[in-house]
Design brief:
alpha/beta; D-Maltodextrin-Binding Protein, domain 2; 6-stranded mixed sheet; 5-stranded mixed sheet; globular
Length: 338
Amino acid sequence: MRSLEETQKGGNPMFRKVSVLTLATIAFFGVWIQPVFAIDYPTRPIEIFVGYTVGSAIDITARVVADLAKKYLPQPVVVVNKPGAGGSLAALEVVNSRPYGYKLFANSTLYFALTSKTQKLMFDPNLLVPIAGFMEYRDGIVVKGDSPWKTLDDLIAYGKKNPGKIRWSHIGRGTKPYLAAHLIFRKAGVETIDIPHKGAPEAISAVLGGHAEAVSAPFGPSLEHIKAGRLRALVNFSDRRYSTLPQVPSSIELGYQELGKLIPIGSLFTHKDTPEEIKKILIDCFRKVGEDPEYKKGFEKIGEEFRAEGPEFVKQAIKNAEEVSVPLLKEFGLYVER
């Protein structure tokens, strides 16, 4: 009797025929395995992990997105809040999950270009890839409504004549509003005093109360004050004018090109190893959500800038922001080496 080894070396024609048939069968079914999985996805609810509390801008956005996504998916999409570490706890939840497309991460592009660069993370943020962008956080420099400064040039001219007289409040060194205002004042050659606060409401109150001449912060909490004339917005930190504040010039218009790269786009991310077929389903679903008229209507209630973008735009937005943020974070001693 021939040994198994001898048979495998080609001594038995019947063995060769069976082997070829077996390989052909495996190859045939292998071609069809992935499409079957794609058709079956999703078979259970999809979770969007938000790294902030209920009521935050990204949380509200995620809930609008999740509510509309049910029109385009056979399973519901639910929001799960996991605040902490500037969003890193929510990101870790997705990174540590099985990459089957059932756990997504919602945050701004600046989480990757700023926040993650200042933390000693337990994971590689590159394991998360974008699916879609949904909105732009609106921010800029605001002064008191009855102040003598009608434009940013007015404020800068005052600062040049009065070094150290401009006190500006902000929401923390290393945040986008801080970096943006810092770049403007430095480029203009104005000596200022910056005053950090715990959040935008406190920073805005400092201007309303006369404890600061200007504030660099998100526009959301100051929007009603701007509309009522109690505050005046001098510039937005974007590459275009905002739809709800068309009278406010963008940073690029005023010659601050770098700020056009520091755009915070609220986006959705999935695990890098998620099968391409599932990524395509998710991308298609959330593209439809961004194009849905109900989404734009819902956005008017949020108070942020509607901006539906694809994954390539989001990816480029992160790269652009890193070009500006990384050198500044290193300059301030805030950058954490990987």
